[in-house]
Task: structure prediction
Amino acid sequence: MAQSNTQRAESGDQQESATRRPTDSVKVGGVEIAIWRNQGSNGEFYTASSPSIRYKDEKGGEWKDGNSYGSHDLLNLAEAAREASAKIRELSKSKR
Result:
């Protein structure tokens, strides 16, 4: 079965994540989404990483990464996804 652009980008991101850096990112509250430039057989395209959330641990006071979202975080997640989509459209237009 053929891989989608997203699947190819994800496998490429895993292999190159130590050397590559995101093209851009958006952050709303504690939610951040990285935007990656990728090269495919049909040319350049952009993808967004899975969202990450940063929070301060109540016990130790250390900043940590999480993958679950409270009700307020979900609003930030939705806004970050909207902004990431707009940024990808903007980047794609500038390359044409």
